[in-house]
Design brief:
The protein has nine helices and five strands, in the order H-H-H-H-H-H-H-E-E-E-H-E-E-H. It is an alpha+beta fold and about 210 residues long.
Amino acid sequence: MSRYKDEQCRICRREGQKLFLKGSRCYSDKCSIVRRNYAPGEHGQGKKKLSEYGTQLREKQKTKSFYGVGEKQFRKYFAMAENKKGITGEVLLQILESRLDNVVYRLGFGSSRAQARQLVNHGHFEVNGKKVNIPSYLVKAGDVIAVREIKKDSKIIKENAEVNSSKPIPEWLEKDNEKLNAKVIRLASREDVDLPVEEHLIVELYSK
């Protein structure tokens, strides 16, 4: 799958807000939004009024950036959401929240979703006792996610677990800090998604 390889901070500047793609850097004075809060490029500081389509497109791009998902996979998730019961936009967010890399990030095992994705890729986690190295794996209610026994001494895992030990955990997850595992109590609801996303704009965009 194609992956964005340019400077991550340019994405935040393009959207005009922090997307927290760089972990602790996003909370420091080094954050590009703090230093240069305007779009990248030669005409970045010029004011430009977005059309209705442009607003919808930016909302989709922003949501893709939040979760680190490519266009093809995002469309796949939207199609899945359309075929499920419920409000399409809310179901879409529920699917995105159910990605294993996002769950690992939400649990504080990764400082960012990008780092969480890398940890999953490198086989640091198991689901229901079986190793899973696919970041897009969708968890279900009742699943148990755990750091694999042979990876519990990982420096990154230990550092993140210590730094994020007091980090609030979403209500749909139940974490055991000592055992480095967690259980999916239920799937995420719209109220559990703390990201500034207007999902109805995405639905309107794909419905054209």
